[in-house]
Amino acid sequence: MKNGLPKTGGSETAYFMLSGMLLVIFGGYLILRREK
């Protein structure tokens, strides 16, 4: 995928995706807890 981002070996992209997934999971967990 060419998004105009500098190529850094993919480690930065993996870290970004991992942090995003953690945010989504944590947010969904908080929402589920609040609805109970």
Automatic annotation (TrEMBL):
Question: Which species does this protein come from?
Answer: Listeria fleischmannii
Membrane topology, as annotated: Peptidoglycan-anchor
Top-level division of the source organism's lineage: Bacteria
* Matching Pfam families: Gram_pos_anchor
Coarse class of the primary localization is secreted
Q: Where in the cell is it found?
A: Secreted, Cell wall
Put simply, this protein is called LPXTG cell wall anchor domain-containing protein
What are the alphabetically sorted keywords of the record? Cell wall, Membrane, Peptidoglycan-anchor, Secreted, Signal, Transmembrane, Transmembrane helix
Q: What is the lineage of its organism?
A: Bacteria, Bacillati, Bacillota, Bacilli, Bacillales
Classification via InterPro entries: LPXTG_anchor
According to the record, the segments passing through the membrane are: 14-32
**Gram-positive cocci surface proteins LPxTG domain spans which residues?**
5-36
